[in-house]
RNA sequence: GCGUCGGUGGCAGAGCGGUCAAUUGCACGAGACUGUAAAUCUCGCGCCCUUUGGGCUACGGGGGUUCGAAUCCCUCCCGGCGCA
């Protein structure tokens, strides 16, 4: 087995485990650093290693365009190409069906603040992604050219990119989509899941394929999806693990996750796609998730929003100009060990490149450190205490 | 000294009789960011009042012309350039 559960939390769905890949073992729960275009923006792989990152996630859609999966394949695969020795994974491009489709220029993200916040789109620009039964037609955001991704094509590209773990091609729906659309999209995503799995088996390689559970915010659909994706099992076997994708509001990030994880096979890893903020990760771990990826730590860092035990702070605020203390006193990261808020504030104001690097180091270390502590708490049997302590101190 | 061009909000720089408290950029202040079209985007940015509203002070100083001036005229001060 490629996944071993070491310890289950007695009071929740949480578990600590080990995921084996050809490029090393991953101790879970773990945060996967996002390297969309084969780079974690502003960091070298050595920096990633130093801050405890165990795995990196690239994106099929982006790598297909830049530099092209053929280049990555010829380079020896994603890890070799980007000089990352550890485990890698790629997203299928399914998220871009959402971000370039339903969400395109609508100010919608995968986490909706409130469901009443739906924007009416009288001035909507035509989306760059259009979904059909066959797949998703994208207009390249780079040059406008048209490209069709089908489940088969996505798997083929991911095979060429060569990450250790790849994902089924799915549709990430908008948090504002109707229940009826969620139902329709879910059925299609399930068909695509089977097609992805069949294609993957044909290619005969060592990659692990994760199926993706969708279903929006509807409990019935989420549970149906967990049963279907968890049970899809052609002659050559089912998925090697699961992604939990799609639309949420802040509050049901963890509730919907719980519905799903109660039903998914326990002996396979579960990756909560695109989540999240520290508080989300704490709650989702409690609800049985093993892996996470999210752009938030790195993007926030580049935008000057830094994590502390007390919540996020904006290093651009005037009050930090002469603050000669680290972002967080007890942080063990390179940035906090060597630089003051005043210096970081200066770098950001001066638009120096090092600003993004130092901030990214800190934010990623913060999130990774959080997952390390969560894992330790599960192994100790103190998860519930840890959670309460963390969330009380951390102001969203 | 003569001639000439110019002096606009923290800076640069539009405006050249009313729709100007004044385009725009930067700076400044704040906010957002969840499988990355993001080192990005949004909002604010003379003072005062609770307002989509109103009042006050403002475009080097002073004085005029006009119903009305940052915009026209006179004068003074200051700067660039040219000639002495």
Description:
- Its EC number is 2.4.2.29.
- Keywords: Glycosyltransferase, Metal-binding, Queuosine biosynthesis, Transferase, tRNA processing, Zinc.
- This is Queuine tRNA-ribosyltransferase.
- Its cofactor is Zn(2+).
- This protein has 396 residues and is of the alpha/beta class.
- It has 2 domains: 3-294, Alpha-Beta Barrel (TIM Barrel); 299-396, no CATH class.
- Helices cover 41% and strands 18% of the residues.
- The protein has helices at residues 45-50, 60-65, 69-75, 78-82, 94-102, 151-161, 179-203, 219-231, 252-263, 278-286, 296-302, 334-338, 341-349, 353-380, 383-393, and strands spanning 3-8, 15-21, 24-28, 30-34, 56-59, 88-91, 111-112, 129-131, 136-139, 146-149, 165-167, 208-213, 241-244, 248-249, 270-272, 291-293, 305-308, 311-314.
- The strands form 5 sheets. An 8-stranded parallel barrel has the order 4-5-6-11-12-13-15-16, surrounded by 5 helices.
- The chain is globular and about 60 Å long.
- The two termini are 38 Å apart.
- Residues 116-123 have low confidence and may be disordered.
- The protein binds one RNA strand of 84 nucleotides through α5, α11 and α14.
